[in-house]
Amino acid sequence: MDSLAPLLAEVESRAPGAKEKLFSTLYVELHRLAKRHLQNDGAAAISPTTLLHETYLGIVQGQAVFPDRYQFMGYASRVMRGLIIDFSRQRCAHKRGGEFQFTQLNDQLAEQIPEPDGEQQTLTRLSDALDELAVHDSRLAEVVDLRYFCGFSLHDIAAMRGVALRTVQRDWEKARVLLFQQLSDVAE
Question: What pTM, to 2 d.p., does this model score?
Answer without folding.
Answer: 0.60
